[in-house]
Amino acid sequence: MIGVYDSGLGGLTVLAALRAAAIDDDVVYFADQAHVPYGERTDADLHALLTANLAWLEAHGVDLVVMGCNTSCAVASRLGWPVTNFRLPVQDLIVNGARSFAQSPFKRVAVIATPATVRSHAYASAIGAVAPQVDVVEIAAPLLVPLVEAGQSESAAARDAVREAVAQFPPGVDAIVYGCTHYPLLDAHFALAAPHAARIDPAREQARAVLALGLPPGNGTTLYVTNADPVAFEQNVRRWTGDTTGRVRSVTAAAK
Ligand code: DGL
Q1: Are 84 and 22 in contact (CB under 8 A)?
Q2: Domain containing 196: what range?
Q3: Are residues 101 and 171 in the same domain?
Q4: Ligand 1: which of 4, 36, 95, 182 to mutate, most ligand atoms within 8 Å of CB?
Q5: Is 70 near ligand 1, meaning CB less than 6 Å away?
Q6: pLDDT in tens for each of the 256 residues of the chain?
Q7: Are residues 76 and 133 in the same domain?
Q8: Does ligand 1 have an atom closer than 6 angstroms to the CB of 69?
Q9: From CA 245, how far away is CA 224, in angstroms rounded?
């Protein structure tokens, strides 16, 4: 069974990429919504949440973790995998996502991410390792995650916040990287704000890396778990995944 976690709804875009790649393993998806947003937390705090979330997934019986949170991967890139006492294999979204540029025509890419991910420079170093010729700029967009979590992805506020992030691009950006898994949920705004840039979702390479593991076939079931409001979470799961059959559960204080 695969475990996917995020601070909230963003990791659903990673789950969607797994399913789009015909990965039919059983999945438990954990949304740590009691602690969202992650992006403005300290490294020490993020490391504690990462450790707690991985332990929760392990206790839930997963045998592989597919990271659905860039901010957690960013802190792991600073402090190092594996995190304390965790022995299961982990697919790192930033390391895998950077492979999007291994053979690409792009010259200057803008990674839009949370403040903690930008601070880590994890994307710049991961892309630099596979495509040193690519010029990487990293731009923090702290307003976007709270807007998505509040159900305001289609609002004028979300549109304006995306425009503000794009306005910080230097000239010549030919690709945007969604360095936070919530941002593909705002894709329509990015398409309007930066019509000439390609939009790269690292989740596609993440799914490709999981596919390459050649996991045995599963039953394709998904269990969605939140440690916040289960009613709102269920509505969002149905809305963003189209999955009408997956079970939704809530737990109290599962993390931290
Ligand atoms: N969706 C997460 C990411 O990819 C975290 C967003 C947040 O909670 O700030 O970084």
Answers
A1: no
A2: 95-201
A3: yes
A4: 182
A5: yes
A6: 999 999 999 999 999 999 999 999 999 999 999 999 999 999 999 999 999 999 999 999 999 999 999 999 999 988 877 777 788 999 999 999 999 999 999 999 999 999 999 999 999 999 999 999 999 999 999 999 999 999 999 999 999 999 999 999 999 999 999 999 999 999 999 999 999 999 999 999 999 999 999 999 999 999 999 999 999 999 999 999 999 989 999 998 544 4
A7: no
A8: yes
A9: 11
